[in-house]
Every structure is written in structure tokens, then in C-alpha cells.
Amino acid sequence: MPTTHHHSCTLCEATCGITVTVADDRVVGIRGDSDDPVSAGYICPKATALADLHHDPDRLRRPLVRGGVDEWFEVSWPAAIELAAAGLRDVRQRHGKHALAVYQGNPTAHNLGLITYGQPFFRALRTPNLYSATSADQLPHMLAALQMFGHQLLMPVPDIDRTDLFVCLGANPAVSNGSIMTAPNVRSRLKRVRRVVVFDPRRTETADLADEHVFIRPGTDALLLLSLVNVLFTEHLVCTGRLTPRLTGLEILRVACRDFTPERTAAVTGVDPARVRALARELATTPRAVVYGRVGLCTQEFGGLAAWLIVVVNALTGHLDEPGGAMFTTPAIDAIPLATVTGNRGSFDSYRSRVRGLPEFGGELPVAALAEEIDTPGEGQIRGLITSAGNPVLSTPNGARLDDALAGLDFMVSIDPYLNETTRHADVILPPTAPLERPHYELALANYSVRNAAKYSPSVLPRGPEQRHDWEIVLELASRVLGGGAAARLLGRFGPEPLLELGLRVGPHGLRKLRGGLSLGKLKRRPHGVDLGPLRRRLPGRLATPGKQVHLAPRVYLNDLPRLRRLLARQRDDALVLIGRRQLRSNNSWMHNSERLVKGKPRCTLLVHPDDARERGLTDGGSAKLSSAKGTVEVTVEVTDAIMQGVVSLPHGWGHHRTGVLLGVATRQPGVSVNDVTDEHLVDELTGTAAFSGVPVHLQA
Ligand SMILES: Nc1nc2c(c(=O)[nH]1)N[C@H]1C(S)=C(S)[C@@H](COP(=O)(O)OP(=O)(O)OC[C@H]3O[C@@H](n4cnc5c(=O)[nH]c(N)nc54)[C@H](O)[C@@H]3O)O[C@H]1N2
Ligand SMILES: Nc1nc2c(c(=O)[nH]1)N[C@H]1C(S)=C(S)[C@@H](COP(=O)(O)OP(=O)(O)OC[C@H]3O[C@@H](n4cnc5c(=O)[nH]c(N)nc54)[C@H](O)[C@@H]3O)O[C@H]1N2
Ligand code: SF4
Ligand SMILES: [Mo]
Question: Is Transport there in the keyword field (predicted)?
Fold first, then answer.
């Protein structure tokens, strides 16, 4: 008899509700759950691939231990954990705590066990060498949250369902389904917005839905935004509304933006000054409007400034913490008050990386520094590494250098369900259960949802007798590396659930309402999830700054403006610049082993403007050499006027040709890795965030 189960798809931030049909321990169907309060039945094609992930014969179900080059043995869990722990202890004993590094990847964000147990373990290792995908992603938004609102997690979310003007920079939500904006079925949400304006070097799927698309030169958003600020001041359009008494730094801003008129920045951004002026007026006069920026805005040379200026523009036009503007959530489990009370608001630049001096953020170093910290000899060199839910060989700038560096480590452990481009370097691979084999609560992304909601899902399928959850793996490792076996045994009896219960009870929808409030039991009785209403005004209460103020002009940004001013004077050579793109049937680097997602025409193509193609004798479908200061890859060219002249685009996450991986489907359709061409030295100097956008490249037939 088939059974049906309710769960969430955890592949991207939308976390759509799914209904899974199971017969004889096989997933026979996955559809959208029409009763999910946020996704209301929507899913994208990736959700059905969760079945492929579940049944994938290549997915590891038992630990692997390296025998020799590309030689692996399946061993029991106790043996694998002991080997892993012994290797890690050995690195720490011989070379010190700093010699052990950790890299945490993107799926951590959706993984209850890794957030509740992985984070504390990795932090308890007390190494400065913590790395994650954050510094290849949203770090600039987190820095703005810390500097302006006093807590690194206080990132506002566009209230997309109630806005009349949605201005989108460096994001393609029609494909990504939203980021720091959990908004399933973003396409239909966007279609309901009266006016959508997109600034992007590519005419994207989102641009196709928009009322207006404007090409912008990669890496120049900060200039565009500062020009908007300039117009707001010079044309007396600033209107800060009810937050006015809470805002500091307005006069400093007025001075800081003085020389950045749209007429001056146009030559660099490529955006017509008249359009900038018109947009400033429109933002100021539309009661419900919001400016939103994401990955393309963050992962560029001026990502830090750009993310700051997004908040500034929203604040100056009265759209911060107002319906239809940039708002804060009221999540059922709210980490922010707790972290604030314990003094853990976040940190920036409290130490620097050894080799290049890149700044710390939130207790981590920028991942652009990871390879050099491994391959540069000397006091403080990294000798051992744990990777957890990450594939940095494909996902970090100059992944090829990291690939080589990993081969030189003394010891490496990977907590990962696949033998892939990164984990092939490990000495021990510890594979956790898959998403359908474990309970789920969306602890992190619920903080960034366009609608407040809470949902708990039990596991859909039983795990095999030999399988372990991520939290069990890290807990075991922790007790073997750091000691504390008794505590680990106690925690091991409970897992993450008591933490959920506690979080819900003390959260804004729990205790205060006493008996009517949320509890884990209540969520278990509501398998589709509980709707907690639209976003509501949260300021000043939610601010974590002393005195509950919003700082519009923090010094770190003002100090970075001279660098932006130099961009105005920079001579443009005729090199092309490279940007990335995401694709609906792709999920960063790790879902290419699903036949249904990769079938059809190869998608890892380089988009080239017709003029640029003609100049270089390139034809549609032909191949070309794409090279940068760091590497060369051979690409298939796709000629299209959807890309700005002077810019080329290659998706990331591909490049499954490396030997020694166990990815039967992915290796048949390998593509190339854009991060074999990106440059670990090209970073936003303020934050250390990788600059994937705007890499100078050459293209040859
Ligand atoms: N050029 C370029 N590079 C980019 C980007 C870009 O736009 N352009 N985007 C960047 C961004 S935004 C991100 S977030 C990063 C992503 O980069 P990463 O986080 O490094 O890599 P992913 O491709 O998400 O790989 C996830 C890994 O986790 C494993 N995994 C999946 N689920 C689980 C689980 O539940 N537990 C464990 N333990 N492991 C699991 C998978 O097998 C895979 O090895 O890439 C960044 N890199
Ligand atoms: N299908 C699918 N969905 C995903 C993912 C996936 O891999 N596949 N990954 C998930 C992850 S980890 C994340 S972080 C989110 C990211 O979510 P988004 O940020 O919405 O995703 P991208 O498609 O990378 O959008 C970045 C856009 O920035 C543009 N761009 C590049 N450089 C610049 C620039 O300098 N200025 C401006 N204005 N635009 C620029 C690019 O052309 C691109 O359209 O998506 C998530 N959702
Ligand atoms: S948009 Fe697609 S991949 Fe993302 S959560 Fe929804 S179904 Fe899953
Ligand atoms: Mo990401």
C-alpha cells in the first residue's frame, strides 16, 4: 500500500512543501503540497529529483576509508570514526589547533543537525581557520546587518507580496527561487508586482518577466546605488518616515555621495543617467517599493559597499521596515535575541588571515584564502581539514589551486554523501543520511521568509541500519577529538529535537501566548506547517545596536569609498569580463548525478554577445578557449544578445571530469568548472568575499 508523507524540499532556500508517495520503500511520486502555507503547492523540477538522490546507487551509505590513490574501503562506523578522530587529533597534537581547518558548505543551512551540532563542534576546535560558503555568497549582506542593525543575522527581506515596485540587482529569482528571500514560486509573486525593474549584465529569466531591464557593467552596482543616493539628496527626495529619530549618519551620507552624480558614474556602469534619476524619483514617490540585491551584487569587487547601499536606499526612501519594503521576519525560533543577550552579535576583522591578511567575519576567514593557507609553508600552515556539506573544489575561486592544495594535506575528513571533486582528497568520508531519511525543521531560512511560518516534518523513509545522521556523526567525532564522552552520550539520546522545543517555546509565537502558543507537539500535529502571518514592522524593537539605532554611515564603508572612487578613474581595457549564472535544473555542484536533471542539451555553455563572437570568429555551438590569469577551460559557445557586450557568462558547479569521483551520471555530462578560471586574488577588499563577477578573461576560437 502506498503511503503519503509531508516534508519540505531542502535543495534551495524556497523550501517548498512536498507530498511524497512511497511504496515498498521506494519513492514513487513527489508533488507540491497545496496546503503548505508558503509554497501552496508549488515545486520546481528539482524537487522530484529528491527521489533520484534517495535511490542514487552512487550515494554513499557506509563510511569510506582511503587505501591508496583512488582506492577505498568500506568500513564500519566505529572504525571510521576512530580513524577520522585519530587523524584529526594527530594534526592538532603535532601542529597546534590552528593547523586544523574546517570548510562548511551550503547544504548546512538546511540541515538541522549540522546547525545545532556541527556548528558548536567546529567552533569548539578553536581554530582561526574556519571557512564556509558564506564568503562566496552573502557575507556582504551579513556585514551590513552587523554594521547597521547590530546583528549579523538581521538581514531584511523584500516584502515581495505587498510591494508595487521591485528593483532587483544581481539576482535572478525566477531561476534561483529567491535568496535571503524565501519565496517559493517567485515567478508568480513577481508577476503580481505592479512594476519590476532589473539591473543585470544578462537579460535573465527574471528580466523577461520584468517591466524594465537595464544592462549594467559587472562590479559597478555600488556606483549606481551611490548615484541613486546622490539624486535622493540633491533633488530633496529623502523621506525617512517613522524611523527618522532612529537613523544616524544622514548628514555624513549627504557629503559622502556628493561627487557620485549619475552623470559621472554612467561611463563606468553603462547606465543612462536619466534612468538613474527617474528611478530615484520613482522609489521616493512609490509608497510601497523595495530595492533587492543578491549573489551578483555580493560576489564582486565592491560587494560590501553595494550591500550597504541597498539598505541605505531603502532607508532613505522610507521603505525600511514598512509593508511592501524591506522588512524583518518574526520567526518561530528566533536566534537573534538569544545571541544578543549572550553578546554574540557577530564580528568583523577581529583577526586576519596569515598569508594575505584578509579579514575575519563571524569567526571565519574568507574562503578565497583557503588554498594559500594550505599550500604556503610556515608557522600557522593548515595541515588537516574537515569538509562538511561542501564541494569547494568546484565552488570556490581558483578551485584548481585548492584541488592541488588538498592533495598536499596531512589529513582530511569529509562529511558528505558523495565521493566527489572535493571528497576524493579525504582520508575518511563519513556519509550522512539524505533529506528524506531525516526529520526537518527550517531553522535558518525561516528567518528570511517573505511570510512567517513554521513547519516540522518527520522523516519520510527509514534510514538503513548502518546509516547515521549528520548530527550523530559530528557528535561522535567531537567526543573522540575533544573528549566529553558522557555529555555526548547524553546528547546522543535526544538529538536536535529538544532544542527545537525550547526554541519554539521561548520564541515570539510560543511562550508569550502560553497555552495557545507554538510547541513541537503542535507542529507535529500540523504536518503542512503553520502560517504565522505576513511580515510586520519590527523596528526599533528588533535592533541589536546599543540605543536601538540604525547606522546609515558606518565607518568601515566610508573608509572603503576612496577605493570606489578609483573605480571611476579606472581605464577599461578591451578584455572581456566573466560572470556566472544559475540554472533551474542545477543546484550548485551536487545534483548533476540525477539523470532527469541533466538530460537534454549540455547546459554548461559560455554566453557570448554576437559582436564579441564575430570579432573573435566564434560561432554558436563552436568551441573556444576561455582563459584568465589563473587558468584555461575549453567551452562551448552560445551566441546570444541576452548578454551585454563585453561580458561572457558560464554557470558554476560543473566540471565533473576529474578522476576518482563516483558520480556515474554527472561524469557523462561533465561540463567545465568556471572556478578553474576565477581568481582567488580577486576579492572585495573590504570583506574578503570572492569576486566571481567581473573576472577579466580572454576568449579564443
Ligand atoms: N563561480 C561561482 N562560484 C560560486 C557561486 C557562483 O555564483 N559562481 N556561488 C557560490 C554560492 S552562493 C554557494 S552557496 C557555493 C556553494 O558551494 P558549496 O557549499 O561548497 O558546494 P555545493 O555545490 O552546495 O555542494 C554541497 C556538498 O554537500 C554535500 N551534501 C549535500 N547534502 C548534504 C547533507 O545533508 N549533509 C552533508 N554532510 N553533505 C551534504 C554534497 O554532496 C556536496 O558535496 O558556491 C559558491 N560558488
Ligand atoms: N536552480 C537553482 N537555484 C538556486 C541555486 C542553484 O544553484 N540553482 N543556488 C542557490 C544558492 S546557493 C543561492 S546563493 C541563490 C542565489 O540566488 P540569485 O542571486 O538570485 O542567483 P543568481 O542566478 O546567481 O543571480 C545572480 C545574478 O547576478 C547577475 N550578475 C552577475 N554579476 C553582476 C553584477 O556585477 N551586477 C549585477 N547587477 N548583476 C550581476 C547574474 O547575471 C545573475 O543573473 O540561488 C539558490 N537557488
Ligand atoms: S524551488 Fe525547487 S529546489 Fe527550491 S525548494 Fe522549491 S522545489 Fe526545491
Ligand atoms: Mo549560495
Answer: no
